[in-house]
Write a structure and sequence with these properties.
The chain is mainly alpha-helical. The chain contains nine helices and two strands; from the N terminus they run H-H-H-H-E-E-H-H-H-H-H.
Length: about 230
């Protein structure tokens, strides 16, 4: 059985309430963007928090990390300056090394903070913490739910097609993929209609329920933010 991100968020170990987690990450990002010492501290702390929260951290980190590394390699080989090393027509300069290093550190420190937030905080908790209202709140929460429905239907149809050898051969693969796309569209409309009926039957008022643990872990949040802020003083 595959583990969904939502199940990881629910079962992850949490030191702070959702409200504190959201604002700790958002305030820390403002420091990460301006100071290299804050980036180092934030990378260490948020990586430790993410590993403590869930073993899913490295799986979540893998895809963006690959993209960041390839992007950094392009920076490393394209910025002019005093040459440090070269291979054929590729060359690394002092300026490119400096920019690539600062970019890599900034990206990974910000990514570690976002990963911690993603691993521990569901979208309803995030939206409720920011106290978003009106159309923006509705479109975020209902869009998130619609994507989950779409992914669930796609996974079920793909597994069904694989069990019937529907992807063997190029012609069969094309035909099966077209049928799955058509069925996803029809089933998603049906599931979303049921979702709307379920909301109405429960007197949905525009607020998605989320776990309410106000100010739990306030000491941890203060200490972590102070540690990251201390980088500005170094």
């Amino acid at each position: 059985m595959t583990e969904s991100l939502e199940s990881v968020q629910v079962t992850s170990r949490k030191l702070m309430s959702p409200h504190l987690r959201v604002w700790l990450v958002l305030l820390s990002l403002s420091l990460i963007l301006v100071d290299i010492h804050a980036q180092l501290v934030a990378l260490a702390l948020f990586s430790a928090l993410s590993i403590h929260a869930s073993r899913y951290y490295f799986r979540l980190l893998f895809a963006p990390a690959v993209f960041i590394l390839f992007s950094t390699a392009v920076i490393l080989l394209t910025i002019e300056g005093n040459e440090i090393a070269s291979l054929y027509f590729f060359k690394i300069t002092d300026k490119s090394l400096e920019v690539a290093g600062s970019t890599l550190l900034r990206c990974f420190s910000a990514l570690s903070a976002f990963c911690y937030l993603i691993l521990t905080t569901t979208l309803p908790e995030f939206v409720n913490s920011l106290r978003l209202k009106g159309f923006l709140r509705e479109i975020m929460l209902l869009g998130y739910r619609a994507i989950q429905v779409l992914m669930e239907e796609a996974e079920n149809l793909r597994n069904s097609a694989e069990s019937r050898l529907g992807f063997r051969g190029v012609r069969r693969w094309i035909r099966t993929t077209a049928l799955i796309g058509y069925m996803i569209f029809l089933r998603s409309l049906w599931r979303l209609e049921k979702f709307e009926m379920a909301k109405d039957s429960r007197c949905y008022s525009g607020i998605f329920p989320s776990r309410n643990v106000e100010h739990e872990g306030k000491i941890y949040a203060i200490l972590i933010f102070m540690a990251i802020s201390s980088g500005l003083l170094v």
